[in-house]
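Please decode residue identities from the backbone states below.
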């Protein structure tokens, strides 16, 4: 039952993302103070290649099932649905970028993931190119790779709960994701960090020489 509910949520988000992409609009990017950071371009070539394969397969099946009208209609409907599903998954990534604003950081992955991190929970951010393996993420780490890579690492002062579609909720203190402008994202995130958390480096000031004990009287 939970799986069916998650699939229904995914489909609703998928079609909404496709509609937003078609009219060149984006979700959650309103406001002059919100900065947008894209991540979908890295997977575009793979997605379009997959769409080409799906298109070739659709045409081939139309010829194969031409003599069977019922099967022909069913196969055509399934193929069109598959193409729209693949295109919608990519469109959702385009229409739902990462954002940085006064409320904090929002990490997204199309219709699959939407994580909001309040500004006061961000400890640090850095550009770090990584290629997560297939063995899963370490405990407490959320990896959100695009085209098998992440380029932005954000450390938190406290864990946040991440609710995934088609998966269990988990607490994480480190988030790794991909941003096309990783340096810009780092600068924007660091600007959110409270002054006391922007670094532990202390600037030395003028010091008074330590005096030893005076001569005995």
């Amino acid at each position: 039952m939970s799986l069916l509910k998650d699939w229904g949520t995914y489909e609703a988000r998928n079609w909404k993302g496709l509609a937003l992409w078609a009219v060149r609009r984006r979700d959650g990017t309103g406001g002059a103070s919100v900065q947008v950071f894209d991540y979908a371009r890295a997977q575009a070539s793979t997605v379009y290649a997959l769409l080409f394969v799906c298109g070739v397969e659709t045409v081939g099946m139309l010829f194969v099932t031409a003599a069977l009208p019922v099967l022909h209609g069913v196969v055509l409907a399934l193929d069109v649905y598959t193409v729209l599903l693949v295109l919608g998954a990519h469109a959702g990534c385009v229409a739902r970028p990462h954002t940085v604003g006064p409320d904090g950081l929002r990490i997204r992955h199309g219709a699959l993931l939407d994580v909001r991190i309040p500004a006061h929970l961000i400890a640090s951010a850095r550009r770090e190119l990584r290629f997560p393996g297939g063995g899963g993420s370490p405990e407490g780490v959320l990896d959100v790779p695009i085209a098998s890579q992440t380029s932005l690492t954000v450390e938190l002062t406290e864990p946040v709960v991440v609710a995934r579609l088609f998966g269990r909720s988990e607490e994480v203190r480190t988030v790794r994701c991909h941003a096309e402008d990783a340096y810009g994202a780092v600068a924007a995130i660091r600007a959110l960090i409270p002054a006391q958390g922007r670094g532990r480096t202390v600037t030395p000031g003028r010091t008074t020489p330590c005096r030893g004990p005076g001569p005995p009287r």
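Observation: The chain has two domains: 2-95, 99-197.
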